[in-house]
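S.,

As promised, the NAP run. Input:
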Amino acid sequence: MSLNMFSLKGKTALVTGANTGLGQGICVAYAQAGANVIGVARRSCQETADKIAAVSGSFTEIIADLSDVSVIPYIVEEAHKAHERVDIVVNNAGIIKRCDAIDVTMEDWDSVININEKVVFFLSQAFAKRWHEDGKGGKIINIASMLSYQGGIRVPAYAASKSAVMGITKALANEWASHNININAIAPGYMATNNTANLRSDDQRSDEILSRIPAGRWGTPDDIMGAAIFLASDASAYVNGFTIAVDGGWLAR
Ligand code: NAP
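Predicted complex:
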């Protein structure tokens, strides 16, 4: 066995939600592993670009709002203007809306389901169509959640969407593994990013959460880099349809 199997040298990786948080961490990890990185975001990814420049990596930004699937053809076109082939797609962008289930509006439900679930499926399909044509395969990594396993509190649309992400990951693996496409997911535990800013500022909820994490701390973007590289690399060639939890032990409790 050689550690070269974890190298992403010569590969191109497209990561959604690349401007901050876990997406930014994955972009930097991929650049460090040797990949050309394409970041998709609805605002500037300058901070990500700077971090990648600091490790002498290659970064291209595509500004696109992922609240609707209509933007997908534009993303595919821009990605292929930048690089001949995209080898790795990370469906990371996502939103969470906290509200008692009794008060959730259809508008909020649709906005969460669109970006967290519908765009994940159709962006994967758009790149898989290319991979089916050229027969060279690819890697899709979806960002799931603890709420792919659990119901959560006051986030029913998010729980529904992240349960769907785990289902989509398995469903697509069943159809596409034979096309040399590995589709897997990472389920982060409670990570210190914008996504959890409200939770972390609520002392009671923050204490409840921290006391349940065996590792005794919130995760950081650095914590998911290893799993993200593994699932994007040759090292995971026979891993299909699986969701890896990176959760400090939360699910083990
Ligand atoms: P974050 O900092 O809020 O990142 C979310 C990313 O999605 C941001 O880049 C955000 O862009 C982008 N995004 C949201 N709506 C978008 C839109 N309409 N178009 C384009 N981009 C959009 O939180 P994060 O924790 O890094 O979240 C990344 C992923 O991890 C999400 O799928 C989240 O559900 C998942 N996750 C997070 C945790 C956690 O504890 N933090 C746990 C489990 C799963 P803006 O900056 O412009 O909003």
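The two ends are 34 Å apart (CA to CA). The first helix runs from residue 21 to 32.

- D.
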